[in-house]
Write a structure and sequence with these properties.
heterotrimer, A: 125 residues, mainly alpha, flat, B: alpha/beta, Glutaredoxin, five-stranded mixed β-sheet, 6 helices
Chain lengths: 125, 174, 628
C-alpha cells in the first residue's frame, strides 16, 4: 500500500516537472498587485485596457532597470494614490486592517484557555 | 435581560456598523485622482511632435509662472469638445503656458486636429507608447494638469474641460 | 397575462405567509402535542404557489414573453433554449424569486421531516421562517418584481450578458442558494429553540441534516462558481478574493464551524449557546453578503447591476434581523457549564471553530475595511488578494495538522495518541516536500511548511481511510474523506501556484514567440459568424520544447450584438496532468494582439479535491439514513 502511494506521488511530481520548470516571475506578481484604475475590480495582470497596457510597459522598464518591488509601488502610489496597490501599505490608516484579525485570533485563544482553566478549577473543586 | 457593559458594547458596535453601511450607500465609490495634488512632478523628457531633436524637460517648466499640461489625441471625441477652452485660455491669458502632449496618436492626425481646431500650445510633444502619461499620473484622456514654477501640481482636471472648470482654472492661476 | 398570473401567485404567497404565522401562533397555545393538520396543508399550498410562480417566470423566458420587463431586459429570442431557462435566475429579480422559493421549500420540508420533535419548537421555526419569507416577498413586490409588465410590448429583448451563457454559471445560483438561503431554516430554528427552550441534544439532532445539506451545496456552489471563473473570465485564475466570492465564503466558514460544533452539542450536550450564535450568524452573513454585493457599495467584476434602493431595503431587513436575534438571544441566555480538557476531542473541535472564526473575520475585515475607511476618513484604499493570502495561508498550516491529529482524541479525556506514528508521518511529509523542492523548483520557506502540512494531512487521512475500511468503523469515514480532500486541495493549489508557467506578450499574425519551454506560433486568424455573435478565432501552434509535442489552441474574441459586448474566450486544453491556457485580446489601434499563455499543472485535480470534500459530506448524509 505504501509503495503504491510512493509510486503515485513520484509520477505526479515527474509530470509536474516535465511540464514546467518555471517559477512564478516577479514581474507577474507585481502586475497582479496593481489595480486597474479604469476597470471594475481587475488587476493590471488581468485587464486588457489601454491603461493596463501602458502601466505594464512602465513597470517592465523600471523592473529591468533593477528597481525592486517596493520602489515601483512607491512610484505608482505617489502618482495614483494608495488605491492602485492591492496590498495595503502598513501605515496609520491601515494599522487596524492588518492587526485586527490577529487580535481576534489571540482573543479566541484566550477564551479557549479560560474554558480549559475553568474545567480544571471545577475538577479540583 | 440584565443590562451590562458587554451588551452595550455589542449593541453600539452593531449600530455603528449599520450606520457606516448606510452612509456607504450614499458615497460615490468610483475612484479618481482629482485630489492628488501637492506633489512635485518628476523628471521627464518630451520630444516635439514634428522636430526630431527638440526636447523639453521639467527644467523648462520652472521658467513659467504656471504651466498647463494637456493630454489629448485626434481619436478622442471629448478632446475635440474641450479644445476651444484651451484656445481661449491661450489667447486671453499670459500667466499660463500650455503644453500639449499627443497621446498614442499618429503625427499627421494630430497636426490636422490642430489645424482644424486651433493650436493653443506653446509646445506639442508626443507620447507614442503612453509612458509619459504615467509619469504625470494620468490615466485617461483628456486630462490636464496645472503646475507652478516650483513644479508642484496645483490642479488636476480629469476629463474634458467645460465652462465650470475653465472658470476654476482662471481662479487657480490668479 | 403572465404578469398577472405571476403577480397573483406572489400575492398569494404573501397572504399564505400571514395566515401561517397567525394559525401557527394560535396553535402554540393549544394543549395538543400535535400540530394541527391545516398548518401542514397551508404550508403545502404555499410551497405549490411559490413553485408555480417560479415556473411562470420560466415560461415567460422560454416563450420570450417581452410583456414582462424582466424577460425583456434579460433575454432575447435568439438565446439558446437552455440559457433562456437559466436566464430566469441569472438576474436580480429572478434570483430573488429563487431565494423565496428556497425559503418556502425549506420551511415546508423542515415542518414535515421533524415530526419527532417538540411542537412549540417546530411552530416557532415555522413562524420565524415565514417572517423571513414575508420580508423577502415584500422586497420583491416593492422593489424588485420580476412580474412587472411593460406596454407596448417590445418586439425583441435586450439580451442576456454573454458571459452568463455558460453551463457552470447556469447551475451555480441554484446550488449556491440551497446553501446560502437554506441556512435560513436553522436561523429560524435557533430563534425557535431559544423561545421554546428546546435545546441540547434534541435541537442538534433536529438541525443536523439541514446544516450538512446546506454545507454540501454551499461548497458545490463555490466550486462551480470558481470553475466558471476559470473557464469564462479569461485569466486563468479561479479565485480572486473578489467581493462576490467573499460573500459566498463568509457563510461557508460559519457553516463549517457549526457543523463541527453540532457534533459536540449532540455528543456532550454542551456549547449550546455557541451553536445558537453560529446558526444566527450564518444567515445574517448571507444577507450581509447579499447587501454588500447587490447594493453597489462595493465594486466587483462579478456583480449584478447595482441599485442603491435595493441597498436601503436589504440594509433595513438586515438590521431588523440582527436586532431581533440579539434581543431574543440576550433575553433567553443562561449560564452554561463547560467541561473542556485540553486533550479532548471537543477541544479540538473548538480549535476548528477558532480557525474558522479567524478566517471569517479576516475575510470580513478585508471586505469592509475600505468602506469604513472611506466613510470615516474619506481615504480610498484597495484590499485585494495579497492581503487575504498573507493573513490566511500561514494559518492553514496549523489547521491542517490539527485536522489530522484532532480526531484521534477521544471524548472528555485524552488517550495516548500514537506519538511515533505521528512523528513518522511528519518525517515522511518533510521528505516528500524536500524531494519536490530540490528536484522541481525552489519555493519560499512558507510554501515548504504549507506543503509539509498538506502532505502530512493527506498521508494521515489515507492511512486512516485504510484502517477504518478494514475495521468497518463507518462513521469515521466521511470525516476522513473530507479532510483528505482538503489536504489534496491545499496541495494541488500549492503545486499549481508554484509551478505554473505564465507568459504575457504581444504578437502579430504570423509571428512566433519563443520562451524557455515553449514555442508559440500565431499561425492565422479566422472570422466565424455564429447565432448571436461574430468570432475572431486565432489559431496557435504550441510546441513543447522539452518533448517536441505540438498542440493547437484556438482562443476567440467574440463580438455579441445583443447586448453589444466583447468577450474573450480562452482556449483551454485540460489534461490529467496540466492545463494549457491561452487568451488573445486585441490592442486598440494596433495590429498586435496581447497573448496570455499559461501552463497550469494539475489544474483539474484542484476541482477533484474540492469534489472529494463534498463527497465526504454526502457520504455522511447517506450513512445517517441507513442508521435510522
Amino acid at each position: 500500500m505504501k509503495i503504491k502511494f510512493i509510486i503515485i506521488i513520484t509520477y505526479i511530481l515527474i509530470e509536474a516537472s516535465a511540464n514546467s520548470s518555471g517559477s512564478r516571475t516577479k514581474l507577474l506578481d507585481i502586475y497582479q498587485n496593481l489595480r486597474c484604475l479604469v476597470c471594475q475590480g481587475q488587476s493590471i495582470a488581468d485587464s486588457n485596457s489601454d491603461f493596463a497596457t501602458t502601466i505594464k510597459l512602465v513597470v517592465q522598464d523600471q523592473f529591468n532597470e533593477g528597481k525592486d518591488e517596493d520602489e515601483i509601488y512607491k512610484f505608482l502610489t505617489s502618482k495614483y494614490g494608495e488605491w492602485i496597490v492591492y496590498k495595503p501599505i502598513f501605515n496609520k490608516n491601515n494599522f487596524l486592517l492588518w492587526t485586527l484579525p490577529y487580535a481576534v485570533l489571540i482573543f479566541g485563544a484566550f477564551i479557549i484557555f479560560l474554558l480549559i482553566r475553568k474545567t480544571k478549577h471545577n475538577k479540583v473543586n | 435581560m440584565k443590562i451590562n457593559i458587554s451588551k452595550i458594547i455589542i449593541f453600539s458596535f452593531v449600530i455603528f456598523c449599520l450606520f457606516v453601511f448606510q452612509k456607504g450607500l450614499k458615497i460615490d465609490n468610483s475612484y479618481d485622482t482629482k485630489s492628488l495634488i501637492g506633489n512635485k512632478i518628476s523628471k521627464f523628457q518630451l520630444s516635439e511632435i514634428n522636430i526630431h531633436d527638440l526636447y523639453i524637460s521639467e527644467e523648462d517648466l520652472k521658467k513659467n509662472k504656471f504651466t498647463l499640461i494637456n493630454f489629448f489625441a485626434s481619436w478622442c471625441a471629448p478632446c475635440r469638445a474641450e479644445h476651444k477652452y484651451l484656445v481661449k485660455l491661450s489667447s486671453e491669458n499670459n500667466e499660463i503656458k500650455i503644453i500639449g502632449i499627443n497621446f498614442k496618436d499618429k503625427k499627421d492626425n494630430a497636426i490636422n486636429f490642430l489645424k482644424e481646431l486651433g493650436n493653443p500650445y506653446n509646445f506639442v510633444g508626443k507620447d507614442l507608447d503612453g509612458k509619459i502619461s504615467i509619469v504625470f499620473g494620468v490615466y485617461g484622456i483628456p486630462e490636464s494638469i496645472i503646475v507652478n514654477s516650483d513644479l508642484t501640481i496645483i490642479k488636476k482636471i480629469i476629463g474634458p474641460i467645460d465652462q465650470i472648470q475653465y472658470n476654476e482654472i482662471l481662479s487657480t492661476i490668479q | 397575462m403572465l404578469s398577472n398570473i405571476g403577480f397573483a401567485l406572489v400575492i398569494s404567497i404573501l397572504i399564505l405567509s400571514f395566515i401561517i404565522i397567525y394559525t401557527a401562533s394560535l396553535d402554540l397555545k393549544t394543549s395538543s402535542r400535535f400540530i394541527t393538520k391545516n398548518i401542514y396543508q397551508l404550508s403545502l399550498f404555499q410551497t405549490t404557489f411559490t413553485a408555480l410562480s417560479f415556473f411562470t417566470l420560466i415560461i415567460g423566458f422560454v416563450n420570450s414573453d417581452f410583456s414582462l420587463i424582466n424577460v425583456y431586459e434579460n433575454s432575447h429570442t435568439t438565446k439558446p433554449f437552455f440559457y433562456k431557462i437559466a436566464g430566469t435566475w441569472g438576474n436580480h429579480e429572478g434570483s430573488l424569486l429563487l431565494w423565496v422559493n428556497i425559503l418556502v421549500i425549506f420551511s415546508y420540508l423542515f415542518l414535515i421531516f421533524n415530526h419527532t420533535h417538540d411542537k412549540k419548537f417546530r411552530l416557532y421555526t415555522l413562524i420565524f421562517q415565514n417572517i423571513l419569507i414575508l420580508g423577502f416577498v415584500f422586497f420583491l413586490l416593492l422593489n424588485s418584481n420580476p412580474f412587472d409588465s411593460i406596454y407596448p410590448i417590445p418586439l425583441e429583448g435586450l439580451g442576456l450578458n454573454p458571459i452568463l451563457q455558460d453551463p457552470a454559471l447556469a447551475i451555480h445560483p441554484p446550488l449556491l442558494y440551497v446553501g446560502f438561503v437554506g441556512c435560513s431554516i436553522y436561523f429560524s430554528a435557533a430563534m425557535a429553540s431559544l423561545l421554546s427552550a428546546y435545546g441540547g441534544r434534541l435541537f442538534a439532532q433536529s438541525i443536523k441534516s439541514w446544516v450538512k445539506v446546506s454545507w454540501c451545496f454551499q461548497t458545490l456552489g463555490i466550486l462551480v462558481g470558481s470553475i466558471w471563473a476559470y473557464y469564462e473570465l479569461g485569466w486563468g485564475g479561479f479565485w480572486f478574493w473578489d467581493p462576490v466570492e467573499n460573500a459566498s465564503l463568509l457563510p461557508w466558514f460559519a457553516i463549517t464551524a457549526l457543523m463541527h460544533s453540532l457534533i459536540v452539542l449532540e455528543k456532550r450536550n454542551t456549547l449550546y449557546y455557541w451553536v445558537i450564535i453560529l446558526c444566527l450568524s450564518t444567515f445574517i452573513l448571507s444577507v450581509t453578503g447579499t447587501f454588500l454585493v447587490r447594493s453597489g457599495i462595493l465594486n466587483s467584476v462579478h456583480t449584478f447591476a447595482s441599485d442603491p434602493s435595493r441597498g436601503i431595503y436589504i440594509l433595513s431587513f438586515l438590521s431588523i434581523m440582527i436586532f431581533s436575534a440579539l434581543i431574543i438571544f440576550f433575553l433567553k441566555h443562561k449560564k452554561e457549564n463547560y467541561n473542556f480538557t485540553l486533550k479532548s476531542r471537543e477541544t479540538f473541535i473548538l480549535a476548528n471553530n477558532w480557525f474558522m472564526v479567524f478566517f471569517l473575520v479576516t475575510v470580513l475585515i478585508g471586505m469592509l475595511y475600505p468602506i469604513f475607511l472611506d466613510v470615516l476618513t474619506n481615504v480610498k484604499i484597495s484590499v485585494g488578494p495579497p492581503y487575504f493570502n498573507i493573513v490566511i495561508i500561514p494559518l492553514v498550516v496549523p489547521l491542517m495538522f490539527l485536522m489530522a491529529i484532532g480526531p484521534k482524541f477521544g471524548w472528555i479525556k485524552s488517550q495516548k495518541i500514537l506519538l511515533y506514528k505521528t512523528l513518522f508521518l511528519i518525517l515522511g511529509a518533510v521528505v516528500i516536500n524536500l524531494f519536490i523542492y530540490f528536484f522541481f523548483g525552489k519555493y519560499s520557506f512558507l510554501s515548504n511548511i504549507v506543503f509539509i502540512a498538506a502532505i502530512f494531512l493527506i498521508l494521515h487521512s489515507l492511512l486512516d481511510f485504510k484502517k477504518f475500511i478494514n475495521v468497518k468503523k463507518k462513521f469515521e469515514i466521511p470525516r476522513v474523506i473530507s479532510h483528505l480532500g482538503f489536504g489534496l486541495l491545499v496541495f494541488f493549489i500549492g503545486i499549481n501556484h508554484q509551478f505554473s508557467l505564465e507568459e504575457d506578450f504581444n504578437l502579430k499574425v504570423g509571428e512566433t514567440k519563443k520562451t524557455n519551454n515553449y514555442e508559440i506560433n500565431f499561425e492565422s486568424i479566422k472570422i466565424k459568424k455564429s447565432k448571436n455573435y461574430k468570432a475572431v478565432i486565432g489559431s496557435f501552434k504550441l510546441t513543447n520544447l522539452k518533448n517536441n509535442l505540438e498542440e493547437y489552441l484556438n482562443p476567440e474574441i467574440r463580438i455579441y450584438s445583443n447586448p453589444e459586448t466583447l468577450t474573450y474566450e480562452a482556449a483551454i486544453k485540460t489534461k490529467i496532468n496540466s492545463d494549457l491556457y491561452l487568451t488573445m485580446s486585441n490592442i486598440s489601434r494596433s495590429d498586435y494582439y496581447n497573448i496570455k499563455f499559461q501552463n497550469k499543472p494539475f489544474m483539474i485535480w484542484i476541482w477533484i479535491s474540492a469534489l472529494i470534500i463534498v463527497l465526504g459530506g454526502f457520504v455522511q448524509l447517506s450513512l445517517k439514513k441507513n442508521e435510522d
